[in-house]
Amino acid sequence: MGLSTHVLDTMHGAPAAGMQVALYSTMTQPPTLLKQLVLNQDGRPDDGLLLDHASLQVGSYRLVFDVAGYFRGRAVALPEPNFLNQVNLDFGVADASQHYHVPLLVSPWSYSTYRGS
């Protein structure tokens, strides 16, 4: 169980390999950085989880995805200022015994998310 993410680049129809992601706990002010990572070739964390079952707690969290940096790295011409810079997803964990999967589907112009399985 625990917390995981997966990012798909809908512009290129591929996983968002190389995207930088940060995870924060928003249960404190200012938020506490828990983890920073770069997504692997499958658009996922190398170890599979952002937080393992023992580390996931009931509370509020924020995932920060560096969307502009990722698309610049793919040589996509972005306007200045670009439409999306970072995507911040704030979400809550109500039952830490369950698995929480927070996927992101993203292009330079749009994104969507949901609670996955």
What structural keywords apply?
4-stranded antiparallel beta sheet; 117 residues; Immunoglobulin-like; 4-stranded mixed beta sheet
What's the short version?
This protein has 117 residues and is mainly beta.
Main β-sheet, in a few words?
Answer: 4 strands, mixed
Tell me the name of the CATH class. Answer: Mainly Beta
Structural class: mainly beta
CATH architecture: Sandwich
Number of strands: 8
Question: Separation of termini?
Answer: 10 Å
Shape: globular
Helix content: under 10%
Description:
The protein has one helix and eight strands. The longest helix has 7 residues, at about 65-75. The protein has one domain (about 1-110): Transthyretin/hydroxyisourate hydrolase domain (Immunoglobulin-like, Sandwich), CATH 2.60.40.180. The radius of gyration is 14 Å and the shape is globular. It has one helix spanning about 65-75; strands at about 1-10, 15, 20-25, 30-40, 60-65, 85-95, 100-105, 110-115. By secondary structure, it is mostly beta strands.
